[in-house]
Design goal:
Elements lengths: L3 H13 L3 H8 E9 L5 E2 L1 H13 L1 E15 L2 E12 L3 E14 L2 E9 L2
Parallel strand pairs: 1-6
Antiparallel strand pairs: 1-2, 3-4, 4-5, 5-6
Helix pairs in contact: 1-2
């Protein structure tokens, strides 16, 4: 089994290759909880998959994503992402985001995103 450093690197590489949904299927638990800042969390893989698909379908121009810093701890990974894209509803977005993942049995069980975009 891969260690967390290898897993988060592979997940990030899949995202950078335009395979975000493949990364989601591979690394997220069925009962995953995902949360944007202090918004209500989205519960379960199915609901989060739909949220991800909706987000990706609304990107009209993708310019860049860069996982600038990666930190690995006990059952936790954190990635500082820098994004630059245009969204159909939100317009041009260029910002940094911290993603914190909690892992259990090789899968992400909770992920929270911190950003000011």
């Amino acid at each position: 089994m891969k260690n967390l450093q290898e897993k988060i690197n592979d997940l990030n590489d899949l995202v950078l290759q335009g395979k975000a949904l493949e990364a989601f299927e591979k690394y997220y638990a069925d009962d995953v909880v995902m949360q944007e800042n202090e918004a209500a969390p989205t519960l379960g893989k199915s609901a989060n998959r739909e949220r991800e698909i909706e987000f990706l379908n609304n990107i009209t121009e993708f310019r860049n994503a860069n996982p600038a810093k990666i930190t690995v701890g006990e059952n936790t990974t954190m990635v500082e992402w820098h994004y630059d894209y245009t969204h159909k509803e939100w317009g041009v977005r260029k910002y940094s985001q911290i993603s914190v993942q909690e892992w259990e049995n090789g899968k992400i069980i909770r992920e929270k995103f911190y950003y000011n975009a």
